[in-house]
Amino acid sequence: MAVDPARPPKLVLDEFINTAFAATPPELHPFFESFQTLYTRKLWHQLTQKLFEFFAHPASQPYRVDVFERFVRDFEGKINQLRLVEMGVKVSKEIDNPQTHLNFLTSLLSRIDVEKSKDAHVLLLATISRAKLLYGDLEGTRADMEKAWSVLDTLDEVDSGVNAAYYGLAADYYKAKAEYAPYYRNSLLYLACVDPEKDMSSEERLLRAHDLGISAFLGDTIYNFGELLMHPILDALDGTPHEWIKKLLFTFNEGSIGKFEALAPLFPQEPILQENYAFLRQKICLMALIESVFKRSADNRTMSFQMIGEETRLPIDEVEHLVMKALSLKLIRGSIDQVEQSAQITWVQPRVLSREQIGGLGGRLKEWIERLNKVEQRIAPEVLGSG
Fold first, then answer.
1. What is the pTM of this model?
2. Is residue 361 included in any domain, yes or no?
3. Where is the PCI domain (predicted)?
4. Closest C-alpha among 350, 357, 355 to residue 230
Protein backbone atom coordinates (compact mmCIF):
# COMPACT_ATOMS: atom_id res chain seq x y z
CA MET A 1 0.00 0.00 0.00
CA ALA A 2 1.34 3.44 -0.95
CA VAL A 3 2.32 5.73 1.91
CA ASP A 4 0.82 9.22 1.90
CA PRO A 5 3.88 11.52 2.03
CA ALA A 6 1.94 14.16 3.93
CA ARG A 7 0.81 11.85 6.71
CA PRO A 8 3.42 9.70 8.48
CA PRO A 9 2.22 6.30 9.72
CA LYS A 10 1.03 6.32 13.31
CA LEU A 11 3.77 5.07 15.61
CA VAL A 12 2.88 2.86 18.55
CA LEU A 13 6.28 2.85 20.24
CA ASP A 14 5.95 -0.25 22.42
CA GLU A 15 4.57 -2.25 19.52
CA PHE A 16 7.39 -1.13 17.25
CA ILE A 17 10.08 -1.96 19.84
CA ASN A 18 8.58 -5.39 20.65
CA THR A 19 8.39 -6.27 16.96
CA ALA A 20 12.00 -5.14 16.47
CA PHE A 21 13.21 -7.32 19.37
CA ALA A 22 11.45 -10.33 17.86
CA ALA A 23 12.68 -9.76 14.30
CA THR A 24 16.30 -8.60 14.73
CA PRO A 25 19.47 -10.31 16.02
CA PRO A 26 20.47 -9.71 19.67
CA GLU A 27 23.42 -7.52 18.70
CA LEU A 28 20.96 -4.86 17.49
CA HIS A 29 18.73 -4.91 20.58
CA PRO A 30 20.72 -2.25 22.51
CA PHE A 31 19.98 0.19 19.66
CA PHE A 32 16.24 -0.31 20.01
CA GLU A 33 16.48 0.10 23.78
CA SER A 34 18.21 3.43 23.20
CA PHE A 35 15.65 4.43 20.56
CA GLN A 36 12.83 3.86 23.07
CA THR A 37 14.53 5.87 25.84
CA LEU A 38 15.62 8.79 23.64
CA TYR A 39 12.27 9.01 21.85
CA THR A 40 10.36 9.01 25.14
CA ARG A 41 12.60 11.76 26.51
CA LYS A 42 12.39 13.69 23.21
CA LEU A 43 16.17 13.88 22.92
CA TRP A 44 16.08 14.30 19.14
CA HIS A 45 19.75 15.17 18.59
CA GLN A 46 20.99 12.17 20.57
CA LEU A 47 18.39 9.98 18.85
CA THR A 48 19.69 11.13 15.46
CA GLN A 49 23.25 10.20 16.44
CA LYS A 50 22.12 6.77 17.66
CA LEU A 51 20.23 6.19 14.41
CA PHE A 52 23.38 6.95 12.40
CA GLU A 53 25.24 4.36 14.49
CA PHE A 54 22.45 1.87 13.80
CA PHE A 55 22.43 2.49 10.03
CA ALA A 56 26.23 2.11 9.95
CA HIS A 57 26.09 -1.30 11.67
CA PRO A 58 26.46 -4.11 9.09
CA ALA A 59 23.76 -6.23 10.79
CA SER A 60 21.20 -3.44 10.36
CA GLN A 61 21.15 -3.71 6.57
CA PRO A 62 17.94 -5.81 6.20
CA TYR A 63 16.05 -3.56 8.66
CA ARG A 64 17.08 -0.06 7.56
CA VAL A 65 14.14 0.73 5.28
CA ASP A 66 11.61 -0.53 7.83
CA VAL A 67 13.16 1.45 10.71
CA PHE A 68 13.19 4.60 8.58
CA GLU A 69 9.61 4.22 7.33
CA ARG A 70 8.01 2.99 10.56
CA PHE A 71 10.07 4.86 13.17
CA VAL A 72 11.99 7.84 11.80
CA ARG A 73 9.05 9.18 9.78
CA ASP A 74 7.11 9.72 12.99
CA PHE A 75 9.44 12.48 14.20
CA GLU A 76 11.32 13.47 11.04
CA GLY A 77 10.14 17.08 11.31
CA LYS A 78 11.77 17.41 14.74
CA ILE A 79 15.33 16.55 13.68
CA ASN A 80 17.94 18.33 11.59
CA GLN A 81 16.70 18.04 8.00
CA LEU A 82 20.14 17.59 6.46
CA ARG A 83 20.86 14.69 8.84
CA LEU A 84 17.40 13.29 7.97
CA VAL A 85 18.22 13.36 4.26
CA GLU A 86 21.64 11.79 4.87
CA MET A 87 19.86 8.94 6.64
CA GLY A 88 17.33 8.66 3.85
CA VAL A 89 20.07 8.54 1.21
CA LYS A 90 21.85 5.73 3.07
CA VAL A 91 18.61 3.78 3.56
CA SER A 92 17.59 4.17 -0.08
CA LYS A 93 20.64 2.15 -1.18
CA GLU A 94 18.94 -0.95 0.24
CA ILE A 95 16.04 -0.63 -2.24
CA ASP A 96 16.80 -2.64 -5.38
CA ASN A 97 13.71 -1.88 -7.45
CA PRO A 98 14.41 1.29 -9.53
CA GLN A 99 10.88 2.68 -9.34
CA THR A 100 10.54 1.94 -5.62
CA HIS A 101 13.95 3.53 -5.07
CA LEU A 102 12.91 6.73 -6.86
CA ASN A 103 9.50 6.77 -5.15
CA PHE A 104 11.20 6.56 -1.73
CA LEU A 105 13.48 9.51 -2.52
CA THR A 106 10.85 11.70 -4.21
CA SER A 107 8.45 11.07 -1.31
CA LEU A 108 11.11 12.26 1.12
CA LEU A 109 11.81 15.29 -1.12
CA SER A 110 8.14 16.30 -0.95
CA ARG A 111 8.43 16.45 2.83
CA ILE A 112 11.51 18.74 2.90
CA ASP A 113 10.81 22.48 3.11
CA VAL A 114 13.21 23.94 0.55
CA GLU A 115 13.13 27.44 2.09
CA LYS A 116 13.99 26.20 5.58
CA SER A 117 16.40 23.41 4.57
CA LYS A 118 18.04 24.35 1.29
CA ASP A 119 21.14 22.20 1.79
CA ALA A 120 19.00 19.13 2.57
CA HIS A 121 16.91 19.86 -0.54
CA VAL A 122 20.05 20.05 -2.72
CA LEU A 123 21.49 16.81 -1.33
CA LEU A 124 18.24 14.96 -1.99
CA LEU A 125 17.81 16.40 -5.49
CA ALA A 126 21.39 15.40 -6.33
CA THR A 127 20.71 11.88 -5.03
CA ILE A 128 17.51 11.59 -7.09
CA SER A 129 19.37 12.91 -10.12
CA ARG A 130 22.13 10.31 -9.63
CA ALA A 131 19.52 7.54 -9.42
CA LYS A 132 18.04 8.71 -12.72
CA LEU A 133 21.52 8.74 -14.25
CA LEU A 134 22.11 5.14 -13.14
CA TYR A 135 18.76 4.16 -14.65
CA GLY A 136 19.64 5.83 -17.96
CA ASP A 137 17.35 8.88 -17.73
CA LEU A 138 19.75 11.60 -18.90
CA GLU A 139 17.03 14.21 -19.45
CA GLY A 140 15.63 13.67 -15.96
CA THR A 141 19.16 13.81 -14.56
CA ARG A 142 19.86 17.15 -16.19
CA ALA A 143 16.54 18.65 -15.07
CA ASP A 144 17.16 17.72 -11.42
CA MET A 145 20.79 18.86 -11.64
CA GLU A 146 19.64 22.28 -12.79
CA LYS A 147 17.08 22.50 -9.97
CA ALA A 148 19.76 21.54 -7.44
CA TRP A 149 22.20 24.11 -8.81
CA SER A 150 19.57 26.89 -8.77
CA VAL A 151 19.36 26.39 -4.98
CA LEU A 152 23.02 25.58 -4.30
CA ASP A 153 24.15 28.72 -6.12
CA THR A 154 22.25 30.88 -3.61
CA LEU A 155 23.93 29.41 -0.51
CA ASP A 156 26.88 31.10 1.21
CA GLU A 157 27.93 28.20 3.43
CA VAL A 158 27.35 24.61 2.40
CA ASP A 159 28.19 21.31 4.09
CA SER A 160 31.06 19.67 2.18
CA GLY A 161 28.98 16.51 1.80
CA VAL A 162 26.29 18.46 -0.07
CA ASN A 163 28.86 20.02 -2.41
CA ALA A 164 30.48 16.62 -2.95
CA ALA A 165 27.11 15.08 -3.85
CA TYR A 166 26.37 17.77 -6.41
CA TYR A 167 29.81 18.01 -8.04
CA GLY A 168 30.25 14.22 -8.04
CA LEU A 169 26.90 13.88 -9.80
CA ALA A 170 27.72 16.64 -12.31
CA ALA A 171 31.06 14.99 -13.13
CA ASP A 172 29.39 11.61 -13.73
CA TYR A 173 26.69 13.22 -15.87
CA TYR A 174 29.23 14.92 -18.12
CA LYS A 175 31.26 11.70 -18.29
CA ALA A 176 28.15 9.89 -19.56
CA LYS A 177 27.73 12.68 -22.15
CA ALA A 178 31.46 12.56 -23.10
CA GLU A 179 31.71 16.32 -22.43
CA TYR A 180 35.33 16.51 -21.34
CA ALA A 181 35.81 20.11 -20.17
CA PRO A 182 32.74 20.20 -17.84
CA TYR A 183 33.69 16.74 -16.52
CA TYR A 184 37.20 18.04 -15.74
CA ARG A 185 35.95 21.15 -13.90
CA ASN A 186 33.29 19.36 -11.85
CA SER A 187 35.57 16.44 -11.04
CA LEU A 188 38.22 18.76 -9.59
CA LEU A 189 35.51 20.56 -7.59
CA TYR A 190 34.32 17.17 -6.30
CA LEU A 191 37.86 16.29 -5.19
CA ALA A 192 38.05 19.62 -3.33
CA CYS A 193 35.08 18.48 -1.19
CA VAL A 194 36.36 15.03 -0.19
CA ASP A 195 39.43 13.39 1.30
CA PRO A 196 40.45 10.92 -1.45
CA GLU A 197 42.42 8.77 0.98
CA LYS A 198 39.48 8.36 3.37
CA ASP A 199 36.42 8.79 1.15
CA MET A 200 37.51 6.87 -1.98
CA SER A 201 38.73 3.33 -2.53
CA SER A 202 42.01 2.76 -4.39
CA GLU A 203 39.99 1.62 -7.44
CA GLU A 204 37.92 4.83 -7.34
CA ARG A 205 41.06 6.97 -7.06
CA LEU A 206 42.65 5.21 -10.04
CA LEU A 207 39.52 5.59 -12.18
CA ARG A 208 39.14 9.26 -11.23
CA ALA A 209 42.79 10.01 -12.02
CA HIS A 210 42.53 8.15 -15.34
CA ASP A 211 39.33 9.96 -16.37
CA LEU A 212 40.71 13.35 -15.35
CA GLY A 213 43.78 12.74 -17.50
CA ILE A 214 41.74 11.75 -20.55
CA SER A 215 39.41 14.74 -20.11
CA ALA A 216 42.39 17.11 -19.77
CA PHE A 217 43.77 15.86 -23.09
CA LEU A 218 40.46 15.95 -24.97
CA GLY A 219 38.84 19.04 -23.40
CA ASP A 220 38.84 21.65 -26.15
CA THR A 221 39.12 24.55 -23.68
CA ILE A 222 41.65 23.02 -21.25
CA TYR A 223 45.18 24.32 -21.84
CA ASN A 224 46.42 24.55 -18.28
CA PHE A 225 46.90 21.29 -16.38
CA GLY A 226 48.63 22.83 -13.37
CA GLU A 227 45.76 22.35 -10.90
CA LEU A 228 45.52 18.65 -11.76
CA LEU A 229 49.28 18.12 -11.79
CA MET A 230 49.56 19.36 -8.22
CA HIS A 231 46.68 17.17 -6.97
CA PRO A 232 47.64 13.97 -5.09
CA ILE A 233 44.92 12.05 -7.00
CA LEU A 234 47.47 11.55 -9.78
CA ASP A 235 49.59 9.42 -7.44
CA ALA A 236 46.96 6.70 -7.97
CA LEU A 237 48.44 6.20 -11.46
CA ASP A 238 51.93 5.41 -10.13
CA GLY A 239 52.98 1.81 -10.60
CA THR A 240 49.96 0.98 -12.79
CA PRO A 241 49.66 0.35 -16.56
CA HIS A 242 48.25 3.90 -16.78
CA GLU A 243 51.34 5.61 -15.34
CA TRP A 244 52.25 6.92 -18.81
CA ILE A 245 49.10 9.09 -18.72
CA LYS A 246 50.64 11.02 -15.82
CA LYS A 247 53.86 11.47 -17.82
CA LEU A 248 51.82 12.69 -20.79
CA LEU A 249 50.05 15.27 -18.60
CA PHE A 250 53.40 16.73 -17.53
CA THR A 251 54.53 16.62 -21.16
CA PHE A 252 51.56 18.73 -22.26
CA ASN A 253 52.03 21.19 -19.41
CA GLU A 254 55.68 21.64 -20.45
CA GLY A 255 54.70 21.98 -24.12
CA SER A 256 57.38 19.39 -24.93
CA ILE A 257 56.73 18.09 -28.44
CA GLY A 258 59.71 15.74 -28.29
CA LYS A 259 58.35 13.95 -25.21
CA PHE A 260 54.88 13.91 -26.81
CA GLU A 261 56.23 12.09 -29.85
CA ALA A 262 58.11 9.65 -27.62
CA LEU A 263 54.88 8.75 -25.77
CA ALA A 264 52.66 8.65 -28.88
CA PRO A 265 53.29 4.91 -29.52
CA LEU A 266 51.37 4.20 -26.28
CA PHE A 267 48.21 5.94 -27.52
CA PRO A 268 46.64 2.72 -28.89
CA GLN A 269 46.32 1.59 -25.25
CA GLU A 270 43.69 4.34 -25.01
CA PRO A 271 41.83 4.11 -28.34
CA ILE A 272 40.06 7.45 -27.79
CA LEU A 273 43.45 9.20 -27.70
CA GLN A 274 44.54 7.42 -30.87
CA GLU A 275 41.29 8.45 -32.58
CA ASN A 276 41.92 12.09 -31.61
CA TYR A 277 45.63 12.15 -32.47
CA ALA A 278 45.29 15.12 -34.87
CA PHE A 279 43.57 17.20 -32.17
CA LEU A 280 46.19 16.21 -29.59
CA ARG A 281 48.99 17.10 -31.98
CA GLN A 282 47.53 20.57 -32.47
CA LYS A 283 47.02 20.91 -28.72
CA ILE A 284 50.64 20.09 -27.89
CA CYS A 285 51.72 22.67 -30.49
CA LEU A 286 49.52 25.28 -28.82
CA MET A 287 50.95 24.31 -25.42
CA ALA A 288 54.46 24.64 -26.85
CA LEU A 289 53.59 28.13 -28.12
CA ILE A 290 52.12 29.17 -24.74
CA GLU A 291 55.16 27.85 -22.88
CA SER A 292 57.53 29.59 -25.29
CA VAL A 293 55.76 32.94 -24.78
CA PHE A 294 55.54 32.43 -21.03
CA LYS A 295 59.29 31.89 -20.76
CA ARG A 296 60.02 35.19 -22.48
CA SER A 297 60.22 38.53 -20.73
CA ALA A 298 57.39 40.98 -21.40
CA ASP A 299 59.64 43.14 -23.60
CA ASN A 300 60.72 40.21 -25.79
CA ARG A 301 57.47 38.78 -27.11
CA THR A 302 57.65 39.61 -30.79
CA MET A 303 58.32 36.26 -32.44
CA SER A 304 58.97 35.50 -36.09
CA PHE A 305 56.99 32.74 -37.76
CA GLN A 306 60.26 30.90 -38.28
CA MET A 307 61.01 31.05 -34.54
CA ILE A 308 57.50 29.79 -33.69
CA GLY A 309 57.86 27.04 -36.27
CA GLU A 310 61.07 25.87 -34.61
CA GLU A 311 59.44 25.94 -31.14
CA THR A 312 56.36 24.02 -32.31
CA ARG A 313 57.98 21.81 -34.98
CA LEU A 314 55.51 23.07 -37.57
CA PRO A 315 56.17 24.02 -41.21
CA ILE A 316 56.31 27.79 -41.51
CA ASP A 317 53.15 27.87 -43.67
CA GLU A 318 51.13 26.39 -40.75
CA VAL A 319 52.37 28.83 -38.09
CA GLU A 320 49.94 31.66 -38.83
CA HIS A 321 46.97 29.30 -38.46
CA LEU A 322 48.34 28.09 -35.11
CA VAL A 323 48.73 31.66 -33.80
CA MET A 324 45.22 32.53 -34.98
CA LYS A 325 43.90 29.46 -33.16
CA ALA A 326 45.68 30.53 -29.95
CA LEU A 327 44.19 34.02 -30.31
CA SER A 328 40.66 32.67 -30.88
CA LEU A 329 40.94 30.41 -27.81
CA LYS A 330 42.11 33.47 -25.82
CA LEU A 331 45.31 31.66 -24.83
CA ILE A 332 47.26 34.73 -25.96
CA ARG A 333 46.53 38.31 -27.00
CA GLY A 334 48.39 40.21 -29.65
CA SER A 335 48.56 40.78 -33.38
CA ILE A 336 49.95 39.17 -36.50
CA ASP A 337 52.12 41.03 -39.02
CA GLN A 338 51.74 39.08 -42.26
CA VAL A 339 54.25 41.25 -44.10
CA GLU A 340 56.97 40.76 -41.49
CA GLN A 341 55.85 37.15 -40.90
CA SER A 342 55.78 37.68 -37.15
CA ALA A 343 53.45 37.75 -34.13
CA GLN A 344 53.56 40.41 -31.42
CA ILE A 345 52.17 38.87 -28.22
CA THR A 346 51.07 41.22 -25.45
CA TRP A 347 49.54 38.75 -22.99
CA VAL A 348 49.56 35.04 -22.22
CA GLN A 349 46.87 33.17 -20.29
CA PRO A 350 47.57 33.05 -16.51
CA ARG A 351 48.66 29.61 -15.41
CA VAL A 352 48.78 27.35 -12.38
CA LEU A 353 52.50 26.67 -12.39
CA SER A 354 54.38 23.45 -11.76
CA ARG A 355 57.39 23.57 -9.42
CA GLU A 356 59.74 23.66 -12.41
CA GLN A 357 57.86 26.57 -13.97
CA ILE A 358 57.90 28.44 -10.64
CA GLY A 359 61.66 27.91 -10.58
CA GLY A 360 61.94 29.40 -14.07
CA LEU A 361 59.80 32.37 -13.07
CA GLY A 362 61.99 32.86 -10.01
CA GLY A 363 65.04 32.95 -12.25
CA ARG A 364 63.50 35.65 -14.44
CA LEU A 365 62.56 37.71 -11.38
CA LYS A 366 66.16 37.45 -10.18
CA GLU A 367 67.41 38.72 -13.56
CA TRP A 368 64.90 41.59 -13.47
CA ILE A 369 66.04 42.61 -9.96
CA GLU A 370 69.68 42.50 -11.08
CA ARG A 371 68.87 44.79 -14.03
CA LEU A 372 67.08 47.22 -11.70
CA ASN A 373 70.09 47.25 -9.40
CA LYS A 374 72.39 48.09 -12.32
CA VAL A 375 70.11 50.95 -13.37
CA GLU A 376 70.05 52.21 -9.76
CA GLN A 377 73.85 52.06 -9.53
CA ARG A 378 74.18 53.96 -12.81
CA ILE A 379 71.77 56.81 -11.99
CA ALA A 380 72.49 57.13 -8.24
CA PRO A 381 75.68 59.28 -8.70
CA GLU A 382 73.78 61.59 -11.07
CA VAL A 383 70.90 62.01 -8.61
CA LEU A 384 73.26 62.61 -5.70
CA GLY A 385 75.36 65.05 -7.74
CA SER A 386 72.37 67.12 -8.79
CA GLY A 387 71.30 67.33 -5.09
1. 0.86
2. yes
3. 182-350
4. 355
